[in-house]
Amino acid sequence: MTYDNICHMKRTTIFIEEALERRLQQFARRQDRSVASVVREALTSHLDSKVAPFELPPTFDSGRSDIATRFEELLFQDFDVHAGARPVRASRKK
After folding, report:
1. In angstroms, what CA-CA distances link 81 with 38, 46, 59, 70?
2. Could you give the domains of the chain?
3. pLDDT tens digits, 11-22
């Protein structure tokens, strides 16, 4: 590992039991890797396995195909602006 890679990392300390430390060192030695790289890989793998996959929210499908053309009517159908007076629909110029 070069200094370029290390400078983008943060140093941290963890406390582990002696037996676990021995197992970690033996594993790293058998893999011809550093303890730090084994710990990084294990943490990454563990955290990645715990992340819930991103799900898109459900769509709002009313089953109607005229929503865009009738949006004002549908929007105000149950809206009482002034004691029974409905809003006037804007005229559309073509």
Report:
1. 67, 56, 30, 18
2. 3-50 (1.10.1220)
3. 999 999 999 999
